[in-house]
Input
Amino acid sequence: MRRSNWVGLIGLLLAMAAVEVLPAQNIGIGTRLPGHKLHVEVEASADGIRIDNVAANGDPILQYRINGSAKYTLGVDDSDEDRFKIGTTALTSETIMSFGQDRSIGIRTTEPGHFFHMTNGGETVGANSMASFDNSSPEGVALAGQTFQENNPNNAFEGVTYYNEGTSNPAGVFGLAFENYTVNNVATVGVAGHTNCWQGFGVVGSRRFDTGPDNGFGGQFYNDVGYTGNLYSISDQRTKQDIQPLSNALSIVNQLEPVSYHYDADRYPAMGLARGREFGFVAQDVARVLPEVTARKTFLTGAASERQPNAPQEMTAEEFVVMDYTRLIPILTQAIKEQQTTISELQREMETLRQEIKQLKSEE
Output
């Protein structure tokens, strides 16, 4: 007998010696007490099971079946860059998860474009989110995204929406806080922004400026807005051109009609309109005198309503006439100056008149 045949026979005998078959037909490899139909036990320094398909285009797979029907299949897809996949009835279709040679992980996608890439696989998600991170412990966050390199200019977390249907108003990032009560006047916060850098920005809101009707906002708040520092508007000379002095401001002020009023909260109950008596102007009246300080802007009429997670906010919006009260300050300032000039001229005339009267009396 050839030496190679002897080697093969000896290997077979050794393998059979390591295999124990119990009356219950459990097969043990490396163990004398198999607890399952096939029980493989290896030492810490030894390798485990090896699945090897030596064909040029074969897929080494392991399949789990119930009552003769395939339920889950896992293995290496030779036709897709040797990705390791977990699927349902087949390896190359209905893929649940895939692992690339570059150590990328894909869920419901066979071509992960990131280290971790999850898609809905073309299926309708419905009202639920694609992923959920639930933290039921009394501490710790549910999901964290961080960049640790000081020279990395990219965002730690990005939320992007491409919605353009016009029936809802989804946000790139949405924060929702539930509150049943407050303790020591400390309430929950929907979205918080903060920076530990003294020249940084806690929150930045902006809007692309294009050639449209310009009826949106860079930031929009409903209900009251509170602040503890100063409120600044850019006024640097470098940002201005065609600078001209104001004139005839007093005549403009005389055309304005200050009024008192109450907001119609019954008509717009979910806009966060202020309660109580207000003092100001009617924007349409001001527009007839100073159209430059008024504009037409869009407001969400249901923005202050109760919100729920995984629930789109229906778009209920109207366009309103708004005005910038701060832009009246220069006009009022100039009107006061013009009025003071008139008063000063009258005072000089009165003084001249007094002197003339005094002179006439002295000549009598």
In short: The mean pLDDT is 88.
